[in-house]
Amino acid sequence: MTNKILLVIFLLSTTCTLRAGEGMWLPQLLKALNEGEMQTMGMKLTAEQVYSVNQGSLKDAIVHFGGFCTSEVISDQGLLLTNHHCGYGQIQSHTTLEKNYLKNGFWAKNFQEELTNPGLFARFIVRIDDVTAAMLAGVTDKMSTKERQSQVDKNMATLKENKKLGPFEELMIRPFYHGNQYFSFTTVTYNDVRLVGAPPESIGKFGADTDNWEWPRHTGDFSLFRIYAGPNNEPAEYSEKNKPYAPKHFLPISLDGVQEGDFTLIFGFPGRTNQYLPGVAVQQLIETVNPARIEIRDAALKILDAEMRKDEKTKIQYASKFARVANYWKKWIGENQGLIATNALAKKTNLEKEFQIEVDANPALKAKYGDILPQFKEKYKILEPYVLSTNYYNEIMGRNIEAMRIITYLRRLSDAYDKNGKEGFDKYKERLAGPMENFYKNYSPKIDQQVFARLTKMYGNADGAKEIAASMQNYLMANRIRNYDQLAEEVFAKSMVLDKSKVLETISQSPEEAIKKIKNDPLFKMATKISEVYQEKIAGRYREINGAIADLQRRYMAGLMEVFPNERFWPDANSTMRVTYGKVQGYQPRDGITYNPLTTLDGVIAKYQPGDYEFDVPKKLLELNASRDYGNYATAEGKMPVCFLGSNHTTGGNSGSPAIDAHGNLVGLNFDRVWEGTMSDINYDPSICRNIMVDARYILFIIDKYAGAGHLVKEMKLVHPRTAQSVKKKPKKILQEPFGKQEQKLKPKEKKAIPYRGGE
Ligand code: ARG
Ligand code: GLU
Fold first, then answer.
1. Once rounded to an integer, what is the mean pLDDT over residues 244-263?
2. pLDDT exceeds cutoff 70 at 23
3. Looking at the predicted structure, is the pLDDT value of residue 742 above 80?
4. What is the mean pLDDT of residues 611-636?
5. What are the tens digits of pLDDT across the range 77-133?
6. pLDDT (average), residues 647-674
7. H or E, element range at 336
8. How far apart are CA 79 and CA 81, in angstroms?
9. Residue 613: its pLDDT value, please?
10. pLDDT tens for each residue of 346-369
11. Which residue has its alpha carbon closest to ligand 2 atom 9?
12. How confident is the model at residue 727 (pLDDT cuts 50, 70, 90)?
């Protein structure tokens, strides 16, 4: 489909109504598609104030954080706000037993104390352009998938070659609407991003996994970083001489908070959604894929949980891993329930029926799109054993049996030797040092052996994934092993992988000897056999079928847009910059229950369990609460707000996204969704899809009153958009920023430098 037709569809569709809150929109198209609706919902900004190429706009404060989260600039000195769980790896990397920043928090008293994070980057979007015409030049409907891809690749290379970029700018091109449209993103990336502050886990991760994906929520999930730049404010590698970055725009922070019904906008980098899947795919997800991966993780988590409860050391070692595995385990459970509860399957198939009727009624459409739905059915049916096997393989061999990580390293080491001889071997060995160290620091062979026994058994009995199951059974037979416990015992008794010193000793020998030993290792041998079968029988075919499905999906997307010109279609998330908007709003998770959209510190106290690793509360916070010492940050009713809910359509990657009020001020920090609504990645439903944000006032309160890091609050611009009149006392200057005339910069109450106390 050509660009022009798409644009016409866009414009036509702006007039129709859309389920409130749905959609992850491209910031440069807000003017054409969303501005009216956003203003009707209460936004006081224009689309240009949200996104502009020529003048400072909200988008200039929005930063892709390390490529996996969102963050935003909140001071004129490059201060960045993101989630605690986004900065977790960095906070952990600076943590030692003596300086336990995870447990106690970390607050830099000045620039010198801010901590560097090699590999972490902060990426700005300079501009976004439609490059569909250039990307699809020479592409025809008659081309095969392969031909089409190679033409598109060629076009992309030409485009990149010819594009004139400013200093430090880079060009990134991404497909939208499953390859029907393309946009280019001109980016500038800063590589010196330092850790500035983090609350203790008992605040930043309060409620941990029990509360994850849940409402009511009481987590202060935030951390602070800072971008540093070279002498001319340009990107620069880390250097002591670098200076705090001066942004084109930063977000003022509202002290007025939110009320039910208030407009909110979420700006960020959502990772992936699949809103236009056909019914057969949704059914496969509900009935086959999700149950399999839930079952596997469930088994692994049960073992981890039991061991973590036995002793403190294990708990510390496994807390982060457990959280990572549990996060999507819980999400998939919620997703499945939500898909069923909202009749997602029926919705998709009804749409398909309508689609087919329209297509069949029009010969031109029929020629173009008539075969798609039957093809989907056929292809997904063929895909089933392959997608199931792939999930088993990835979840079991690639993820939940930890020792397989070391096997992967050793295999790469051996590949490096095959390819580049001793030099390749030595080079890769050097690169392994850090990751190995990290792995063994938190590794318990005793736990892994249990996981291994349990999951290899699941692999060997995988229903519907015959070939990979057979590979496991054959391995047992060939080695005369009776059962999976025995397999685990033998492997774990003999493999070097379980013991760091043995692995290090092995790879310190000559490459020939090392590799001979590696290839003789019982776990390595087993993993190699299993992996060979997967690669040979599953991987290639899986890729091939998926390629064909992707092609169908592209054509289906084009078909939907052509057949339903009055529907407004938003492009699935693909880790590019998007705007979503909604309102502060509660919901009814079940019959007879209504959730209020706001929580307070009272709820933290109510959940408090002294000494518990999920629900402990730091002493200082208890004291501040007991004396109601909330500084400037309480609500009008004298409560300390903590989290709130909105009907904004978000997904993974939106973590750390700012929640912005009608005037362009930061009122909250996105960090999660509610469990009942996690199916929004496949079937957004306004009745139960809600995102969860930390209230900005709680963040300020923790920084200022809890941590005594008021110097950071002084850097920020605090505003009162609602009650501007009442802060007339300091009628200094009216700000030049385009965001709400009533704003004024406020100083935190305590003007004197507050002595640094650090978190508890
Ligand atoms: N559910 C949130 C997001 O997906 C937060 C995850 C981090 N927290 C945790 N307890 N695992 O991905
Ligand atoms: N916690 C998620 C993240 O890491 C955001 C929550 C969601 O998936 O919506 O991006």
1. 97
2. yes
3. no
4. 95
5. 999 999 999 999 899 889 887 899 999 999 999 999 999 999 999 999 999 999 999
6. 98
7. helix 312-341
8. 7
9. 83
10. 999 999 999 999 999 999 999 999
11. 651
12. very low
- Residue 726's pLDDT band (cuts 50, 70, 90): very low
- Residue 85 annotated as catalytic: yes
Q: What Å distances lie between residue 145 and 25, 169, 337, 517, 688, CA to CA?
A: 28, 32, 36, 44, 38
The answer to whether 582 touches 649, Cβ cutoff 8 Å, is: yes
Identify the nearest ligand to the CA of 670 by its number: 2
**Which is the closest atom of ligand 2 to the Cα of 327?**
1
Q: What's the mean pLDDT in 300-311?
A: 94
In whole angstroms, give the CA distance from residue 79 to residue 204.
18
- Give the closest ligand to the alpha carbon of residue 330: 1
Instruction: Give the Å distance between the CA of 400 and the centre of ligand 1.
Output: 18
| Lowest mean pLDDT segment, chosen from 163-172, 683-692, 721-730 | 721-730
Active-site annotation holds for 655: yes
Q: How far is the CA of 667 from the centre of ligand 1 (A)?
A: 21
Q: Which two tokens stand for residue 652?
A: 């993974």
**∠286-289-295 over CA atoms, to 5°?**
100
| Overall average pLDDT of the 38-62 stretch | 97
CB 80 within 8 A of CB 226: yes
- Report the C-alpha gap between 100 and 200 in whole angstroms: 9
CA of 509 to the centre of ligand 2 (A): 45
d(CA 71, CA 669): 9
**Mean pLDDT, rounded, for 483-495:** 97
Nearest to 395 by CA among 493, 328, 341, 336: 328
CB count in 10 Å sphere of residue 702 = 27
| Cβ-based burial of 753 (10 A; exposed 0-12, middle 13-18, buried ≥19) | exposed
Contact residues for 443 (Cβ-Cβ < 8 A; gap 6+): 317, 402
**Measuring from atom 6 of ligand 2, which residue has the nearest CA?**
672
Residue 751 confidence (pLDDT) above 50: no
Nearest-angstrom CA–CA distance, 402 and 740: 53
**10 Å Cβ neighbour count for 7?**
15
Assign 119 to helix, strand or coil: coil
Report which of 572, 575, 656 is spatially closest to residue 187, judged by C-alpha positions: 575
User: 588-612 burial string, b = 16+ CB within 10 Å, else e?
Assistant: ebeeeeebebbbbbebbeebbeeee
DSSP state string for 582-600 = EEB--B-SSTT--B-SEEE
Q: Which of 64, 84, 85, 663 is catalytic?
A: 85
Q: Which pLDDT belongs to residue 722? A: 84
- Say whether 639 sits in a helix, a strand or coil: coil
Distance CA 460, CA 453 (A): 11
**Neighbour count for residue 636 (Cβ, 10 Å):** 9
Closest CA to 95 of 75, 68, 111, 117: 117
Tokens of 742: 């009533």
**Is 510 an active-site residue?**
no
Question: Could you identify the atom of ligand 2 that is nearest to the CA of residue 691?
Answer: 9
Query: Is 213 near ligand 2, meaning CB less than 6 Å away?
Result: no
For residue range 363-386, list pLDDT tens digits in order: 999 999 999 999 999 999 999 999
Q: Which residue has the higher pLDDT, 101 or 751?
A: 101
Dihedral over Cα of 253, 254, 259, 262: its sign = negative
Q: What is the pLDDT of residue 6?
A: 46
Contact in structure between 73 and 227 (CB atoms under 8 Å)? yes
Atom of ligand 2 nearest to the CA of 670: 5
- Rounded to the nearest angstrom, the distance between the alpha carbon of 345 and the centre of ligand 1 is 27
- To 5 degrees, how large is the angle CA 247–CA 37–CA 27? 30
Looking at all shown ligands, the one closest to residue 209's CA atom is: 1
* Joined tokens for residue 336: 């499945």
Residue of 101, 247, 94, 124 lying closest to 191 (CA atoms) = 124
Active-site choice (221, 672, 685, 695)? 221
Which H or E element spans position 265? strand 263-268
Per DSSP, the chain holds a count of helices (H) and strands (E) of 28, 20
Q: CA 666 to CA 252: how far, in whole Å?
A: 6
